[in-house]
Amino acid sequence: MALVPMSDLRIVDDWHTSGMRGTGSVTTVAEDVFVPAERVLPLPTVLSGHLASDIAMLRAPLLPVAAASSVGTVLGLARAAREAFFERLPDRKITYTAYESQREAPVTHLHVAEAAHRVDEADFHAHRLADLVDSKCAASAPWTLLERAQARADLGAVCRLARDAVDLYARASGGSSIYADVPIQRIARDVQAVNTHALLNPDTNDELYGRVLCGLEPNTFYL
């Protein structure tokens, strides 16, 4: 990691994506830039959780803190999908069926119940992760390898469960939900994009967690 003045960098306007557009994660290019040694910090040192401050949040390794800081947005996407779905529900029917009210259809009951389970499960993993980070920071306790891997796994679980919940709400929203002014389609694109992020990907995080549970060394230092 290096500290470089923004005036020495070139920003490339290339963040033209199907999801997560609001993050503005454009490419930043450094060309022929000199960075003095005092502005450089080796990444393994950052990730290992070495203490350099008495601030509680800085007593934990970077990635568990980053994971706990990220899950709120993902959980919020699932809750926003739920809100968007139920806001439209009273005025909807199911086209090409006898149901003049969508909320009277058993298939709707199944969809919203299953989605509610997914949101509740995502909420559990999000709060377990946040509670672990808070308690470890408050106690200045060292992190075990298993706890670090579990933090990544909880992050991935929130992403997967939120995606599943949003997908259920989106599928139950019908063809009219694909219009650009209907929030559910944007939420669905955002949560899908989240799940493709290398550090948030549920499968990658579960593989790492499983390796550690099986007594193997992790195959990454991003813990």
Describe this structure in words.
This is Acyl-CoA dehydrogenase C-terminal domain-containing protein. Keywords: Oxidoreductase. Pfam families: Acyl-CoA_dh_2. This protein has 223 residues and is mostly helical. It folds into two domains: 35 residues, Butyryl-CoA Dehydrogenase, subunit A, domain 2; 158 residues, Butyryl-CoA Dehydrogenase, subunit A, domain 3, CATH 1.20.140. The chain is built from six helices and two strands, in the order ββαααααα. A two-stranded antiparallel ribbon has the order 1-2. α2 runs antiparallel to α5, α3 packs antiparallel against α4 and α4 runs antiparallel to α5. The chain starts with 8 loop residues before the first strand and ends in a 10-residue tail after the last helix.
Considering the chains and any ligands shown, give keywords for the structure:
223 residues; mainly alpha; Butyryl-CoA Dehydrogenase, subunit A, domain 2; Butyryl-CoA Dehydrogenase, subunit A, domain 3; 2 domains; two-stranded antiparallel ribbon; 6 helices; 2 strands; globular
Shape descriptor reads: globular
Q: What about the largest sheet?
A: 2 strands, antiparallel
For this structure, the CATH topology of the largest domain is: Butyryl-CoA Dehydrogenase, subunit A, domain 3
**CATH architectural designation of the largest domain:** Up-down Bundle
